[in-house]
């Protein structure tokens, strides 16, 4: 569906600029890899071998660098306990706080925040997306989550 609509892809480090200054008549997509959002706590560059062996030495910058510029996220990240989360409960509360509503272009309704939806195909309950508390199914494909109340329901 995405590729059938007017769109463009940008590297993750250009996402902020594309959202702020790009053509709002096009969808903007990016593909994020581990090295785009994981950084060593002690400083330096991402090292895949070190990360796989010692994930506790890394932290996620996803909530600061990438998530503020997303409207929709499709998550398929491999995650297990002990690894940094993409988004914590605290992160999602900050990302979805009510802000001054504004429209980016004529004809668009004003929205209180940019982040609107997540498609989580990873199915990790309380995993890389800590706020995902249920696994969706074909019969119930959506989890509706209210980050301000920390409450969800399957729909």
Describe this structure in words.
By secondary structure, the chain is α/β, with parallel strands linked by helices. It has one domain. It has 5 helices and 8 strands, in the order βαβαβαβαβαβββ. The relative contact order is 0.13.
How do the helices and strands line up, and which of them pair or pack?
Elements (H helix, E strand, L loop, with lengths): L6 E3 L5 H7 L5 E3 L4 H4 E3 L7 H6 L4 E3 L1 H4 L6 E4 L13 H7 L21 E4 L22 E4 L4 E4 L1
Parallel strand pairs: 1-2, 5-6
Antiparallel strand pairs: 3-4, 7-8
- Quickly give the structural class: alpha/beta
* Low-confidence runs of at least 5 consecutive residues: none
Q: What's the pLDDT, averaged over the residues?
A: 83
Order of SSEs, N→C? EHEHEHEHEHEEE
Note the main attributes of this structure.
155 residues; alpha/beta; two-stranded antiparallel ribbon; 5 helices; globular; oxidoreductase; Alpha-aminoadipic semialdehyde synthase, mitochondrial; saccharopine dehydrogenase activity; AASS
Compose a concise summary of this entry:
Keywords: Oxidoreductase. By secondary structure, the chain is α/β, with parallel strands linked by helices.
